[in-house]
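ok trying this again, last paste got cut off
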Amino acid sequence: MIPGYADHAANERTFLAWVRTGIAMIAFGFVIEKFNLFLLALAAQALDERAAQLAKFSGRGGRYDGLALIFGGIGLVVLSTVRFVRTTRLLDDSAVHDASSVRTELMLCAFLVLVVAGYGIYLAFG
């Protein structure tokens, strides 16, 4: 039996959940990018009145939203990998360690709340 199997299994499940979330962010970023390209292609072939509406709908920020999600997802996968390796090393170490700091998790949650709030404001008023 592996010593501390339950702790290692919980660490791996958490890691896989974060990787799954990162992959979902990357996939959603690709969807936004492709939809924006689709809108720009429609605007190029539409009549003058509809072209202006479609170009306005795609917006300036629409060009960068997908890329931001793609790079955010990649960053999330990298961050979760680093955290997984660090936690695995701490679990394998026989010394007693202080309780882990939740500072990183709180900063990540605050950042995600700000991103979602900012994007919601952008969609509502932009």
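PB: full thing came through this time. The chain is about 85% helix and 0% strand.
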